[in-house]
Specification:
Shape of chain A: elongated
Largest sheet of chain B: 5 strands, mixed, barrel
Number of helices of chain A: 3
Strand order of the largest sheet of chain B: 2-3-4-6-5
Helix content of chain A: 55-70%
Radius of gyration of chain A: 26 Å
Radius of gyration of chain B: 26 Å
Structural class of chain B: alpha+beta
Largest sheet of chain A: none
Shape of chain B: elongated
Oligomer: heterodimer
Order of helices and strands of chain B: HHEEEEHEEHEEHHEEEEE
Number of strands of chain A: 2
Number of helices of chain B: 6
């Protein structure tokens, strides 16, 4: 299988899984973990594209909130605490990736010769 | 909230800038503006020159007559040309967008045809983007076909890059390189003729239409090597005025 076909196949199955999570979360889960969402339905389709992409995070947060439903600080503190370290890591990672890619990319092989391996056998007419 | 945090300066957009944050705000703004300026300049100067290839819209639609060769990819050996594409030239043929014309060209292989479309040009590489259906390609009303001279130039190992012939000829800028790989693969999958850009010339030419040793279109595995610099073995032939590099896909090596 070509590399590109593998990437597309993984992306397709990722989105299929995201679709299942979106149906379950928006159909049942969101009512269980967010009382403000109960009885509100119009906004839910707007969440579908996001859930398709980050469904593992949705599942993880859903599980956390199911286990500790009333702890508001427990709901937001992990994200707040992760903000600073994430910022520092990205500030290092993004320039490193960018500069690394620039440094490691191929350069045009301008000095590579055209090598004749075997001379022509003869001419023909089509 | 503790007392100490109550004394910290706190930015509120509509209240003006707190004294304690003025220096930080000015420094951050200067750093961002200067930093992004330097970043933009660095990225811009690191890019390769895309060259002067382009669609030749100013020429208007070109109508040409010539011998159609369908394999490995459709090309036209021009027998009756125009001011810009004279008789004797051999040009690549493509359809609109990312589509080739293999289904339309195959039944007319070896026949005298008339083509109409918009030209693209990059150096000595010419392509015609044909109009749809028989408006773009049809059997010529009259005329006598001529034989196409084929000259074998031997077996070569060439180093360079596999590109899609349409973007390379001017449909995209840049029409080659790693940043263009996805577009090139879409074009090649659509049947656009692939072109090998060689680091060194053979008979003075650096652009070669590609195919396989058995005169077929490139197999899908070759798409993995598009837009990277490779060396590959194959037979070079001159068909009319077009140089064709018929490769052995198993001989592809990553260029150091």
């Amino acid at each position: 299988m070509e590399d590109a076909a593998i990437v597309l196949s993984v992306a397709r199955w990722w989105l299929y899984a995201g679709g299942i999570v979106a149906v379950l979360f928006l159909g049942f889960g969101i009512d269980r973990i967010d009382e403000n969402a109960r009885g509100s339905y119009i906004f839910r389709p707007l969440l579908v594209p996001g859930i398709l992409l980050i469904w593992p995070l949705v599942l993880w947060r859903w599980l956390k909130l199911e286990r500790n439903h009333h702890d508001i600080s427990g709901r937001y503190n992990p994200l707040r605490q992760a903000h600073g370290p994430t910022w520092m890591v990205l500030a290092f990672l993004i320039p490193t990736l960018f500069l690394g890619a620039l440094a490691l990319r191929q350069t045009w092989p301008k000095d590579a010769p055209a090598t004749l391996l075997a001379p022509p056998a003869g001419a023909a007419q089509r | 909230m503790s007392d100490s945090s109550n004394n910290d300066p706190f930015f509120v957009g509509y209240l003006g800038i707190p004294k304690g944050l003025r220096f930080f705000l000015a420094a951050a703004a200067l750093l961002l503006i200067g930093g992004f300026g330097i970043l933009a300049l660095s990225i811009g100067t690191a890019q390769n020159d895309p060259g002067d290839a382009s669609f030749e819209f100013s020429w208007g639609p070109q109508t040409l007559t010539g011998i159609l060769q369908a394999a490995p990819y459709p090309i036209l050996h021009v027998t009756s040309g125009s001011k810009h594409i004279p008789a004797g030239k051999t040009i690549l043929l493509s359809g609109n967008g990312k589509r080739g014309i293999v289904p339309r060209a195959t039944p007319l292989d070896g026949q005298l045809v008339q083509v109409t479309g918009i030209a693209l040009k990059r150096g000595d590489l010419d392509m015609l983007q044909l109009r749809g259906g028989t408006n773009g390609l049809r059997k010529a009303d009259a005329g006598v076909g001529q034989s196409i001279s084929i000259k074998a130039l031997g077996r070569w190992r060439l180093t360079g890059e596999i590109c899609d012939g349409k973007c390379l000829s001017g449909a995209m800028r840049p029409g080659r390189g790693l940043s263009h790989k996805a577009c090139a693969n879409f074009c090649l999958r659509g049947g656009i003729p692939p072109v090998f850009v060689s680091s060194a010339p053979v008979e003075g030419r650096n652009f070669f239409l590609m195919g396989t040793l058995d005169d077929k279109a490139l197999p899908p595995d070759v798409l993995n090597h598009v837009a990277t610099y490779i060396s590959v073995e194959g037979v070079v032939e001159r068909h009319g005025a077009m140089h064709i590099f018929k490769i052995d896909p198993a001989s592809v090596e990553f260029a150091k």
